[in-house]
Amino acid sequence: MTGEIIAEIAKALSEPKRVDILESLQQTAVQCDDYQCCDLSEKCCNVGDLSSKLDLAISTTSYHLRELRRAGLVKTSKRGTQVFVELDFGTFHDLGEYFISFLDILKAKQKE
Q: How far from chain centre, in Å, is Cα 69?
């Protein structure tokens, strides 16, 4: 991951509502009950349901999702008039690896 990508992710995470959205997706997106409408299997969450759960207007949720999508943290898919959202596993994996490398270096330095 480049410094630019990390900065974009940090910028997206600087808004607490976006962190709330990510946490909600982590907790509930894998439990999406509407398999008939959800083309992303159990990894999705309908944006309307997400808005309701977080007590946000759909327009507000959509705005925050746009910023999270720009940072590569979520992916959206449209089916008819409904939009579904899921966490982007690849970005979270890469982000985790990035910070794990920091931890590995810090652990090595502590042992010195």
A: 8
